[in-house]
Amino acid sequence: MPRSLPPVAWFRAFEASARHLSFTAAADELGMTQSAVSQQIKALETRFGTELFTRKPRGLALTDAARKLMPQVGSALEMLQAATLALDGPPEAELLTVASSVSVASWVIAPHLRDFHRRHPQVRIRFASAIWPDDFQSAMADVEIRFGSQRQVGQSALPLEPSELVALKSPMLEGKLEDLPLIESVGTSVGWDAFGAAHGLGALRPRLYVDSYGMALQLAAGGSGVALVTALLGRDAVASGQLVPAHPGSLAPREGYYIAVRDTVPAARAFADWLDARLKQG
Question: In 3-state terms, the chain is what percent helix, strand and coil (to 5)?
Answer without folding.
Answer: 45, 20, 30
